[in-house]
Design goal:
Blueprint (H helix, E strand, L loop, with lengths): L2 E7 L8 H9 L9 E7 L10 E6 L10 H7 L6 E5 L2 E6 L3 H11 L5 E5 L2 E7 L2 H7 L9 E7 L21 E8 L2 H10 L9 H14 L4 H11 L2 E9 L2 E6 L8 E4 L3 E5 L15 E3 L7 E4 L1
Antiparallel strand pairs: 1-8, 1-13, 2-7, 2-8, 3-5, 3-6, 4-5, 9-10, 10-11, 11-15, 12-13, 12-14
Helix pairs in contact: 5-6, 6-7
């Protein structure tokens, strides 16, 4: 039942409006998933400045003896660390590589659960009403070139911050999912045998881990998604983003709703048309329903 929205901006003049447009889209799919909401923003240099890496961690996994506990814990390792708290999520940014920041987080905050990382990406996820979470994340204030959001109605696992979407398990990668994977337990077992660890019991995380493994082996996004369609059974619409672009795929039956709209200024995807209705120039957009098991991808 979950709600998915995504926006890939082609026109740099719209970059300052990314957050307001995405929030409007999100608020039109709240009824599809009242349990929780997650957001991913690409290209907001106020949240992840140029030359910085950012890591998002679950705040309830951070030891908070004081208001400045995360910063204090990392100050000796990363003196220029910037810490921003947003509900269940804490974002840590520093002028180092992603791997260096992840290593420092694991050393300084060993209980932290990492839910996103990259040099162009900030991730926020948590439980609660999606409209209130959008305010908590300051989604309206976000700028950038690409974003996605998800509202969740839990079916395969508990309503927890770990179970929220998006799942960001590779650098600058995100996946959101509407539907369910029937054989996720089998694929999870195979991935664990290959040494891959999991943060939740959510079936969607299995899809994200599978894609990240394929991308790490050299697949491009289209190849990885085609491999997912071959390996996974079930009903699904997936929206996947990376620092290079934006992709959508549905299962062979395509029973989970999805609609795509394109103009010269943007590409957008949503679970329902009403989430697209407020986009600038929608009246001139090419609007269509994606075909089953066809991968639709757009590069930056």
């Amino acid at each position: 039942m979950c709600g998915i929205v995504g926006l890939h901006l082609r026109d740099p003049n719209l970059y300052p409006r990314l957050g307001t447009l995405l929030e409007t889209m999100l608020c039109q799919v709240i009824e599809r998933g009242p349990d929780s909401a997650g957001v991913a923003v690409y290209g907001d240099t106020r949240r992840c400045p140029d030359g910085y890496a950012a890591v998002s961690v679950l705040a309830d996994r951070v030891d908070k003896d004081s208001d400045d506990a995360p910063k204090d814990a990392l100050a000796g390792l990363l003196p220029d660390i910037v810490v921003t708290e947003a509900g269940d999520t804490t974002v840590l940014a520093a002028p180092v590589t992603v791997d260096e920041l992840l290593a420092a987080v694991r050393q300084g905050l060993p209980r932290a659960r990492v839910v996103g990382s990259g040099t162009d990406l900030t991730v926020y996820k948590g439980t609660g009403h999606p409209h209130e979470l959008a305010v908590t994340y300051d989604l309206a204030g976000a700028q950038g070139w690409q974003g996605l959001a998800h509202t969740r109605m839990a079916t395969e696992s508990a309503v927890t911050p770990e179970g929220c979407h998006p799942f960001s398990v590779g650098p600058d990668q995100c996946l959101v999912h509407n539907g369910s994977f029937a054989n996720h337990a089998t694929i999870r077992r195979d991935l664990r045998f290959a040494g891959i660890e999991f943060d939740s019991e959510n079936d969607s995380e299995v899809g994200a881990r599978f894609l990240a493994a394929r991308l790490a082996k050299g697949d491009d996004l289209q190849m990885a998604l085609r491999a997912l369609c071959e390996a996974f059974d079930g009903f699904y619409t997936l929206l996947v983003t990376s620092k290079d672009g934006f992709a959508v795929v549905r299962d062979a039956i395509a029973c989970k709703p999805a609609i795509i709209a394109e103009t010269s200024q943007w590409v957008a995807m949503a679970s329902e048309f009403r989430a697209l209705a407020g986009l600038p120039g929608i009246e001139d957009a090419r609007i269509y329903e994606p075909e089953p098991e066809r991968v639709y991808a757009w590069a930056r």
